[in-house]
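Invent a record, attention on tokens:
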Amino acid sequence: MSLRIASRFARRELRGGLRGFRVFLACLALGVAAIAAVGTVRSGIEAGLKRDGAALLGGDAEVQVTYRYASAEERAWMERISDRMSETLDFRSMVVVDGPNGAERGLTQIRAVDGAYPLIGDVQLSPDIPLEQALAGQGAVMERVLADRLGLSAGDDFRLGERAFTLSALLLRYPDNASGGFGLGPRTIVRTAALDGSGLLAEGSLYSTEYRLDLPDGAALQPLKEEAEALFRDNGLRWRDSRQGAGGVQRFVERIGAFLVLVGLSGLAVGGVGISSAVRAYLAGKTGVIATLKTLGATRRTIFLTYFIQIGVLTLFGVALGLLIGGSLPVLLAPLIEAQLPIPAEFAIYPAPLIEAAVYGVLTALIFTLWPLAKSGEIRAATLFRDAFTGTNTLPAPGYLGMMAVLVALLLVLAVWFSGTVFLTLWTAGGIAAALVMLVIAAWGIRALARRSRRAARGRIGLRLALGAIGAKGGESTSVVLSLGLGLSVLAAVGQIDGNLRNAFSSELPEIAPSYFFVDIQPDQIDGFRTRLADDAKVSNVESAPMMRGVITRINGQPAEEVAGGHWVIRGDRGLTYADAQPDGTTLTEGEWWPAGYTGPPQMSFAAEEAAEIGLVLGDKITVNILGRDITAEITSLRDVSWDDAGIGFVMTLDANTLAGAPHSWISTVYAEEEAEAAILRDLATAYPNITAIRIRDAVAQVVELVGGIAAATRYGAVMTLVTGFLVLIGAAAAGEKARAYEAAVLKTLGASRAQIMGSFALRAALLGLGAGAIALIAGLLGGWAVMTFVMESDFKVIWSNAFLIITSGVIASLLAGLAFALRPLSATPSRILRARE
């Protein structure tokens, strides 16, 4: 019965239109739109990757082995399941160009291909000639960025190792471009046969061999993957098919998309403050209506349902509006977005992200409206007639509090489910909750401080009036601090994390990192390599070590994946080395190093931190597949390994006897003064054309660029949160417009000038903005410190430029919102305002 009556009352209330709910709808729609837009872009990219998976991969499936060619057994299996097969090699090397001022060098990622390449997809060149023609003889194609850097154009010659090549065309697009992961050099493509005699593919060189397969129509990919893993898992063979054509790019899109959705949730939390304030203000204006209904016999349930249904309808409208904006905007802007993406996308209206955004929006609205709705039913009619709605400080009934707790838990569970990241979701939720609690306490503290400071402001009318308004019970202080503070907190945390990551890579690392990282040094070259550097006074340190790559296949006889889960050490191949005596600077945390000249069963020293993460202890046996051969070694020691200084570090070190005779190369890090770097590279590359030099500063620059792109995307999400907070701020200022009009009328009657009144309003807004900005800065610094310390495991320093921007933004935003709704109260005549008030 009460539901039917409440529905009738709610329907009649809704006839009054949306007056009082504009901020409610704007906050809800903006938060939902942000989440829906991010989800739609992510779904569009995933759809594009799925559609073009085979073209991106260069085949229906890819089989990869590391630092060797496929065995006869492996090739026979691949030929049996496929119609066609293409073999390519991938490795880094140096392009050398003879110029008027000597040789110029540039790092490149080489793909050596056979005549069947590409199986699926097209290679686009400039000029537009067939790839077969471009690679004929000693022909090569190269990406424009490298050609421009070295001053090369079509027809010019260059060297790779000890072989000369001719640039036939510029490489514009090629299959598998999106799945190669992070590369340190632009791409160059040559024929595999053209590398004969180059010295680049000697035994022990670092390269991977990829076999792309054109499978028969209707081939079942999952059973083939399982068959490959069952037959060749212990050989280090890795399978990938068109379902994951973009590889790491696809995982990156999924993760950054999930993170941006979580940032969007923080925007919804800010909007929730506005939603709660709007509902509270609306119900405060309905005090007479609620009192009348109570007097006529309406129950608490009827009153609650009346406004619950009304706000529920408006919530659905706001969510629908947000879905319309968030879902359609990426589709409308599809050409612009696709032009900025290096990977394919297919933008359309996708149900999944819209459902996710709708669920978040509805749950957020429920959580933030239950409190004021519950309190409306708890207050007696006599109290409503006698006092304002906001005057009560009682808590809602325990049932409502329990319902809010259940809704919050449900929101967290769904956020974990949608994002697929438990750790990140809980961190985000914890950060939002902590910031809200901090801001609520801060708002209370600011009001208390303002009340106590009024005495000290005697004689300063503008300041005294501003402090009185800030400290007033039921004023706008709490709404301003919460809405503006939470938005600025997110922006402050993102800015601090971004700045610290950039500093970690671009400022601190080069001071301690080596100048060059050299790879593919052959065993017969290492002595001459060291001799050249030993004679250079500007070289402060040289670290060298033999290196090969291996895949951990088993731990104590069990498949490594079952023991270590998804730990990074067992994903793919890992660098390992060998040593006889314990190397200088090696610190053992447990166990003992094998004696010099050891010739017994294989022994291994494992990185202590990674061993603890996996659960390894002394005595465990690790099986590593190296160049197709299984080696099982016992862990006899654990040691400290630092990854912070860009020096040489290996998770696994084996005794020298175990790896005696295995093909391998050496790697070396060279620490030198910057002005000596060019001469070092020139001398070593001239003497040993096969070696590859990676300049650490160039690698750092690429990492900084990548971090900058991620941070920019995150900042956009944080700015959306701030925009939502500004909307809430406008709502709070609009709600206080009548109070300002009355205040201005009284002050005018007492003789205050318009300038004095405006100054008081401006000072009030500025002080509130300053307080919100300061608290947001503290919350942002704590959040940034927590992420850098516990997630990034890096040092944290305050980025003061960002800190200043946050406080300035708080003052400006509060001033704009406050003054925008101060002009009309100032223009009103005191007589009209005071007569209406009576």
